[in-house]
Design goal:
Length: 340
């Protein structure tokens, strides 16, 4: 059963609760801490992106096309459509001889409202580069060009690209490919249904890839380094992923959100992976819960970065604080953490 992980108060009176489930595991799959149901099944959504980007490095496309670390980071991103993001995705496509017309991620406005207002004022229209998954799709196209695969059908579950990515997910999550439930993500490519323990395991192996052969270990370390060294490319201004990776930079932490309130973190200093799912799909509870878990684990973030970020504060339309979201870890099991 899901557990209450956050309580919402308005002027000191309880107004709502958020149920959720989370788990922390080591690279062997041993549970370190949890709350709720560690076997809850959900879709991995965009929290799978670093693993989907991994073959770009491991199989040689990165070196072949000369991709930079910021470009690798945007391949792992759910970005805001800021100028840096658009430039990085455009650069990836240019290096493989394509432009944004090759992207099949669909079109939506920039996630950052003021950037959408700029488009409106200039009479411009959003296009595929603005899609928050355009970096992931650019990486997928890079693999298609590198391997000589058909580009028109790269979204199909039967395409060699998607079959290869399913194998990567299977190996990182210790889940047989035919046991992984496949759905369709918002950007049109396959998405993977797994338990949150399997998601956490994948992120533990991003944190500590020692079980893998040398070539994959090196690729994992480069992907994690690209994300943690260029956190703005993974999300954007005032986004949780970017804030966390900046605030906890001394630990080399890597983090990635997924739709429907999925969230994953790699903790390389301990070799652990965390996966969280808020039951109602509301992302507003994610940041308070994640920050509370990190604090309980003993992680100390940069106060200057975190001081400007108040995800637990509820404001009215006058920007006055009128309530707060309070994490509730009272039902969490931290036995192994306490004994570390």
């Amino acid at each position: 059963m899901a557990s209450i992980v956050a309580r919402v108060y308005r002027n000191q009176m309880g107004e709502s609760v958020h149920y959720g489930d989370w788990v922390i595991v080591d690279p062997d799959g041993a549970i370190i801490a949890s709350q709720g149901n560690p076997q809850l099944k959900a879709y991995f959504r965009s929290a799978a992106k670093p693993i989907q980007a991994l073959p770009v490095v491991e199989q040689g496309a990165c070196d072949c096309f000369g991709f930079s670390d910021p470009e690798l980071a945007v391949m792992c991103a759910s970005h805001d459509g800021e100028p840096q993001h658009l430039a990085a995705v455009s650069s990836i496509l240019a290096k493989i001889g394509l432009d944004y017309n090759a992207l099949q991620c669909g079109i939506h406005p920039p996630r950052e409202p003021h950037l959408y207002q700029v488009l409106i004022r200039t009479g411009a229209e959003p296009h595929e580069l603005h899609n928050n998954c355009s970096g992931k799709h650019a990486g997928m196209l890079a693999l298609c060009v590198y391997h000589g695969w058909d580009r028109e059908s790269y979204r199909s579950p039967d395409h060699p690209l998607q079959q290869m990515l399913l194998t990567y997910i299977s190996e990182f999550c210790d889940a047989a490919g035919d046991k992984i439930t496949l759905g369709t993500d918002g950007c049109g490519v396959p998405v993977y249904g797994l338990s949150i323990t399997q998601m956490a395991l994948a992120w533990a192996r991003l944190a500590d890839p020692r079980r893998f052969p040398p070539q994959r270990r090196a690729a994992v370390k480069r992907i994690v380094r690209a994300m943690s060294s260029h956190p703005h490319m993974v999300a954007g201004t005032n986004r949780l992923c970017t804030i966390l990776m900046r605030a906890f930079a001394s630990y080399g932490l890597a983090a990635k959100s997924g739709a429907e309130a999925v969230y994953c973190i790699a903790l390389p200093d301990r070799g652990w992976g965390l996966a969280l799912k808020i039951a109602d799909g509301s992302s507003r509870a994610v940041a308070p819960v994640v920050l509370a878990i990190l604090e309980h684990l003993g992680y100390s973030g940069d106060r200057h970065v975190l001081g400007r970020y108040h995800p637990s504060v509820i404001r009215n339309h006058h920007q006055q604080p009128v309530g707060e979201i309070v994490p509730d870890l009272s039902e969490a099991k931290f036995e192994r953490v306490i004994n570390q």
